[in-house]
Write a structure and sequence with these properties.
This protein has 185 residues and is mainly beta. The protein is built from 1 helix and 12 strands, in the order αββββββββββββ.
């Protein structure tokens, strides 16, 4: 009953803010009723009592800064990034993966800006493979020796910094088919 009464009072307070006045009445069965509608006279019952509801707390947030559409980003000097390097795999590391799955991790300093991208350079050829949190995820890479590097580019595709390539070896098990069985006649 206590939770129900508290809920009724809370609803009454909310209604009070909207309409201005709350009334409390008790019906013939002793039930307490809160309402924002002035009750009609009920013979033999106590008169309705106005309820004073304290003002509700409100909060006005500060205005949000206006977003500028197509706002030019801060200019980037050619030496904005001081470091970009492949940290994994190590130079001349051998990776064993029968599926050809490879993760190439890079480190960049200062951290990559939101309007820049890290792109993979695989075997000397720039690609559109983009790093997620500094990691390039590759699958089905051919076995053999490869080089991997990275470059940071701006929105226009201008190269801001490029890492030195790292050479690594990928081993994939190759199962040669069995030679055909020749039966003599």
């Amino acid at each position: 009953m206590g939770i129900r009464l508290a809920l009724i009072i809370a609803l009454a307070a909310a209604a009070s803010a909207a309409s201005g006045q709350i009334y409390k009445t008790v019906d013939a069965n002793g039930n307490v009723v809160f309402t924002d509608i002035a009750p009609v006279d009920r013979s033999g019952q106590p008169a309705p009592q106005p309820v004073a509801v304290p003002p509700m707390n409100t909060y006005e947030p500060p205005p949000a800064p206006a977003a500028q559409a197509n706002a030019p980003s801060a200019p980037v000097t050619p030496s904005y990034y001081s470091q970009l390097e492949v940290v994994s795999p190590a130079e001349d590391e051998t990776i064993r993966s029968n599926a050809g799955d490879i993760q190439i991790e890079v480190a960049i300093s200062p951290p990559l800006r939101a309007d820049h991208r890290l792109l993979l350079v695989l075997d000397g050829t720039p690609t559109e493979v983009e790093a997620v949190n500094g990691v390039f995820e590759l699958s089905n890479v051919d076995r053999g020796t490869h080089t991997a590097g990275a470059r940071a580019v701006d929105r226009q595709g201008n190269v801001l910094i490029e890492s030195d390539p790292v050479t690594f070896n990928l081993m994939r098990v190759s199962v040669e088919p069995s030679p055909p069985v020749v039966t003599p006649h």
